[in-house]
From TrEMBL:
Superkingdom of the source species: Eukaryota
Listed name of the protein: Uncharacterized protein
């Protein structure tokens, strides 16, 4: 019975209505978002039975848990791809390719001499060193 009631409440609340409510509630004018949530919770308690509120809380908690798990797995996959984490069998090939080419990023705010700019403008295939070093 609670599931049916929750389904009917969910269907009656449109996404646009929720967006409009939050957009019209500006934190600077009416307080913080936690104040708004408390006010809306009080309004909800006046109109809905306690069992329904508890059921809604459980549904929201379950949805938040699922969302967290999904977002964490997506972020973990992205982090692994950005760190180039690969299988151990592929590591030997990567070590050889790292010895062949090394990519270096030069910060944009680094002050360079004209000679350095000239060398960098031609494209580096070597590391320039001073003769007295």
């Amino acid at each position: 019975m609670i599931d049916v009631l929750l389904a009917s409440i969910t269907k009656s609340c449109s996404r646009q209505l929720m967006q409009t409510t939050f957009q019209s509630s500006k934190p600077g004018e009416t307080g913080t978002f936690s104040d708004l949530i408390s006010r809306y919770a009080l309004d909800l308690r006046k109109t809905v039975h306690l069992k329904t509120i508890i059921a809604l809380g459980l549904v929201i908690h379950e949805l938040n848990s699922r969302l967290y798990i999904d977002m964490k797995s997506v972020k973990d996959k992205k982090f692994a791809s950005l760190c180039n984490k690969q299988l151990p069998s592929q590591m030997n090939n990567n070590i050889m390719s790292l010895n062949e080419k090394l990519v270096v990023t030069i910060p944009g705010d680094l002050v360079l001499t004209d000679a350095e700019k000239s060398v960098l403008g031609k494209g580096l295939t070597f590391v320039p060193v001073e003769k007295n070093i």
